[in-house]
Amino acid sequence: MLSGVLRRVFGTSSERAIRRLVPLLEEVRKHEKACVGMRNDELRAQTGKLKQRLDPAIRQCIEQVASEAMAEEDRPRRFRELIQPHLDELLPEAFAVVCEAAKRVVGMRPFDVQVLGGVVLHEGAIAEMVTGEGKTLVATMPIYLNALVGRGVHLVTVNDYLARRDREWMGPIYEFLGLTVGLIQHDMGTWERQVGYRADITYGTNNEFGFDYLRDNMAVRPEMRVQRDLYYAIVDEIDSILIDEARTPLIISGRPEKSTDVYYKVDEVVRRLRKGPHYEVEEKGHHVLLTEEGMQWAEQLLGVDNLYTDEHIGTVHMLEQAIRAHNFYKRDDEYVVTDNQVFIVDEFTGRILEGRRYSDGLHQAIEAKERVPIQFESQTVATITYQNYFRLYAKIAGMTGTAITEGAEFAEIYNLDVVQVPTNLPLIREDETDLVFATEKGKFGRVVEEIVRLRGTGRPVLVGTVSIEKSEGIAEMLWERAVTDFEVLNAKHHEREATIVANAGKRGAITIATNMAGRGTDIKLGEGVRELGGLAIIGTERHESRRIDNQLRGRCGRQGDSGTTRFYLSLEDEVARLFGGDKVKKLVNWLGSDYMDEEPLNQRMVSRAIERAQRAVEEYNFEIRKHLKEYDDVMDKQRRIIYGIRRDVLEDKDVRDRIRRMMENIVQDAADRYAPEDRLPEDWDLEGLGAHSHYVFGFEPDLSVRSSDSLTPLVESLVEQVWAEYQRRESLIETDLRSSYREQVGGDGADIDFAKLARKRTHDLELMVLLRTVDEKWIDHLYSMDYLRDSVRLRAYGQRDPLVEYKTEGFEMFEDMMVSIEETVVQTLFRLTDPELRRARQAQVRLGVKRPREDPFAQLAHYTYVAADKQQDRSFVSYDTSRFALAGQRSDGPARGAHQPDRPRRVPIRHTGPKVGPNEPCPCGSGKKYKKCCGSV
Ligand code: ADP
Ligand code: MG
């Protein structure tokens, strides 16, 4: 049995990989024999037994991981490393159980090559198995084995239809064995998703998985999150997802309707505030402080009850930035205004800093002050590339019919090996040599001729095209020949399409489809078709990537079927024209116009030139994806830090410690600034330090603790004072609670733990302020990073490496943001707990903690989700459109020849949440009009 498998092993490294696995296969088969005799319930009981055997290992691995020193985020990967050998041990039995269950439940017993493919997936590699080999079934074995760990397994498909199909098809196998299966679909709400992710095994698309990850990291309450760990993912059609779609990152962008007006409004308010009574400023540290009077005035002007509630905290910050814009930034000094835009002036060189923006909302405040348009179109609130999303999993694996051509990329970017798994039956498909025509007209004429001829024989034909227009063109030509019994597909409705493609193998069927249409659907031959020669595939143009051509070819000849494929090309085709090189051009010239259109040239040279061109384009595209990744890597580190903080806050981990650390950092930073160690104590600016404390903490500290040579005692004393003050405020809240209880309820409330209540109140405040601040600053930072990326590209002309600049400046900006987060969090907390401020507004406020009026779940619907367009087969077009494309910017990058600005754009798909009109009732359920409620600024 095995010699047959081995005879068909090809590529050398794959051959070795496969040979190594053969003993495992034998073991699987041995255990399978034992399973055959089991009753259904006995077979099912194997799951429990395997889990039981695995349990001690899991516990031991968890302990081991916990005992090792490493970053929190590295632990899952370490765990999976440790658990892997234990799973290897169970593999033969687990796979055998699935083999037998599959046979009983879906009537398919995995072939030897399928078992081998399953092992490859379990090992975390890519199994290249040609179309029709049954990869859907292959995945069930590693999925089952890895699901025993209990951390979830994701099976990633390219569209919703396939996710559903595969879940319905394979799900019963797992369920038979006692595991749970979930499904994620685009139109599902939070709760359904939670159920889907809680299952042992979850089927879904790359977009849904990726967007759910981002959305979970925008959640303002823990119960809004849907995903669990990202433990193990098997990506089906992995080349389509990690190569074709990887050029466009996932982006969630925010509501622009909320963004710009408010800056002008706030600016109006600030124009009417006066320095002194309404706010205080401190020039040196650029500090500003709204007084109680100023605050009330601002509230009145803005028409809000209370600025210190969590919905308006952002507005307080905007007010402060506007005050800064008016007090510390002068036109033609710090900045200039040209063409209705605000440009920063470099304070050292006096030159305009092209493409730089002040961060943290300051730039917008200046724009409002200057009454120029606010550059704030669509705010990215979260973004990630597929590359970085999938790297979050502790283990990933993939399967596809075509991966080997991109083997280098998979290895370099994803650390994934490609293993070619031999086919179950010998492949007898014939790939005929290309026919090359001088003109497109000649080519299509011959294609139609061939369709008509094949139709006469009853052989089914599948014609692959590069676009819907081309498909329709062929359809028209067929109509002219009075041929009407054909199907034209356009990759818009996955499900309908799948049914049609599935029938493309029937006797006499003629199907015209774009190359990508119906991917993942199996084409079975109809009765008697095999004898006629099987399915005939006609390719009408080369794709820029050989992989896509191979996909088309792979649609026939499955499981030992007969079949033929042939590509019809012309010198007018895009690939030939753009990338064919000089020889092709010369040939075209030489042919002139009088060459017979209809006759194929039989020019091997052209075929070869095209293949060379394809390789060049593949490399070029790899280059672009690599760039995207390099840039996103900078962001990835930052994203992990921020998401890490968010997670801790949401899960309420060590929040108090974090606040205390923030205070320490602020004090230390201020001390370093006002009293640097390298200056003599008499030069220390203690007054400045005191003023700083006043602005941030709202009280005047005692600065008398000093020693002659070191700052440490002073810093320590300051930290203690700040901390003591913070705790004093908590105890004041306790006192207030006590007295308000006495007033409103009566009695002394002896059975009430007021201290605990007060603690809870401050704690709620801490969580709210932390989350809000982190989100606001992070989103702003994303915007600045976007801007920075554009601006470093311009600098590339100045011999500077844009990536290096992006890294350095991005890092600095991130550091600044972190400092700014700390200051804002602590300052806001001290404001919110300020006894005077609190008393002054006790009437309307209960400590400023109000549950947000907006339903946070509903909020998510306001965002726009942007991802790569799966409908688009053709990716020639994207060089100049991806906002990450850096075509021609690098001296060592690929040639610019491919850059064609007049090409149609690769359009991202946008899913936009329902738009609410200003006069409609607010979706939050308040009963007010939208514009008066959540829609108001
Ligand atoms: P792929 O994803 O590799 O292109 P599919 O998973 O769509 O292939 O399966 C192709 C066809 O092969 C399906 O019709 C499936 O029923 C059939 N098939 C797969 N494995 C087996 C098996 N072990 N025995 C019988 N039929 C199988
Ligand atoms: Mg498939």
Name the features:
binds adenosine-5'-diphosphate; 7-stranded parallel sheet; binds magnesium ion; alpha/beta; 937 residues; single chain
Protein model, in words:
Residues about 845-855 and about 870-915 have low confidence and may be disordered. The protein has about 950 residues and is α/β, with parallel strands linked by helices. The structure holds adenosine-5'-diphosphate and magnesium ion. Magnesium ion binds next to helix 6. Adenosine-5'-diphosphate binds near residues 108, 109, 135 and 137.
Shape: globular
Can you count the beta strands?
Answer: 23
Mean pLDDT: 83
Bound molecules: adenosine-5'-diphosphate, magnesium ion
Broad structural category: alpha/beta
Instruction: Give the low-confidence spans.
Output: 843-853, 871-916
Distance between the termini: 72 Å
Strand order of the largest sheet: 3-4-2-5-13-1-14
Give the % helix.
40-55%
What is the rounded Rg? 33 Å
Please work out how many helical segments DSSP would assign: 31
Major β-sheet profile: 7 strands, parallel
Portion of residues in beta strands equals: 5-15%
Quick structural overview:
This protein has 937 residues and is of the alpha/beta class. Helices cover 51% and strands 10% of the residues. The model is unreliable at 843-853 and 871-916 (pLDDT under 50).
